[in-house]
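The pair is quoted verbatim below.
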Amino acid sequence: MLGPHGALRINSFYPETKLNVTEIQEYEKQILIRMKSISKDCRCPKCGCITDKYHGTYIRKVQDLPILGKMVQLEICSHEYECRNNDCEITTFAETFDGFLNTYSRMTERCADFICTLAMESSCEGCARICKALGIKISGDTVIRLLLRKYEVLPGPEVGDVIGVDDFAYKERHTYGTIIVNEKSWVALLST
C-alpha cells in the first residue's frame, strides 16, 4: 500500500492488473484521476469468446467514491475489441472491468453499492441529498434505477411444490409464531 517515502500508492485501490493511474489532479471540489487500460484481451459479452484484436480506444468518465468530501471523477482510456467469432451478433464491444466497472455504468460498482445500501437505510430522495453532501452526483430517480438493476440480477426465490405450515407459541397467550417448511427439502434432510 505504501510507496517510496511512505506515500500512499493510489494504484492499489483500483484493479492493478487492468488499469494504470497516469495522472491525478486535485481541484477545490473535485479530484480527477486519469487511468489507462493495460489489458491485452477481453471476453465477448455475447458469445464468451476471448479476443485480443483491438478496434480502438475511447475515454470513459465515471464517478467513484468521494475522497475527503471531494467528488472523484475517473477518466479511463478504455479499449474496444473486435469479436473473433464470425457467428457472433456483436462485431465490436467495449471492455469491462468486472467487479469494478461494468459496460454502461457511469459509476464504479463500489460507489453504486454504497448508494444502494444508503438508499435501503433511508429513502431514495434522502439518499440523493446525503450523496450530494458527500460529493456524489446523483438524483433520486437514478437511485431508484440502481436499486431496480440490483434487484433484477438477484436470484429468484426458491419456491417449494409442497409446503408444511405450523403455528406455535413462544409464550402461551402472549407470543406466537408460524413456520413454513419446504416439505421436499425437509424430507431429504431427515433421510440423510
